[in-house]
Structure prediction request, 217 residues.
Amino acid sequence: MKFVLRKVHSYLSLFISIQLLLWTVSGIYFAFNKIEDVRGEQYREKPQNSVNFQDINFEISDAENISFISRGDLDLLIVQDASGRKYLDYEGNDVKKITYAHAQNIVTKKTNLEPLEVNEITEDKKGSEFRGRNLPIYQIKAVNDKDEEINVYINPYSGEVAAIRSAQWRIWDLMWGFHIMDWEERDNVDNFFLQLFSILALVSAITGIVLFFKRKA
Prediction:
């Protein structure tokens, strides 16, 4: 019995050793990097928005959620209902997308970064750094005070800073993919490989503990 346990433990440990190393390395990276810094919160300026509800000149019905935001040139409402998300001015009219120049101006006002160029993204991409955000979206390439390149993603209708992505975030995202064993999309935390290796790691740990006490006996 002891021989069988030793064999099972040895082969399992060899099989899962690389993934255990990746779990450890990624866990260390997570522990030593604040999630707020990873998300780029240190680059954001605190917004100062005020809403005068008396300026709203239309009725809103069947809305699931309503939020208010100022994009600089216009105060607007973001209305979520059964048909989707709408961006409306205070008269109830659909708002138009901001210009590239306006997007750069928003980056200057809402972050401490220097904008360089703007691109519009209209198609989703697996594992992208803007995944989970509504499309279309503006990608503004910018730099911080250390001349490090930072990507700022802005909603072209509301002017919201939807995401800030730096090299720190990209490393974190890579480590997250290693950690959950989803190397392509890096979002699926209940995939087969993660479940399998978690069970194998548990079996390896249990057999190791059993062997330790059997040796003592």
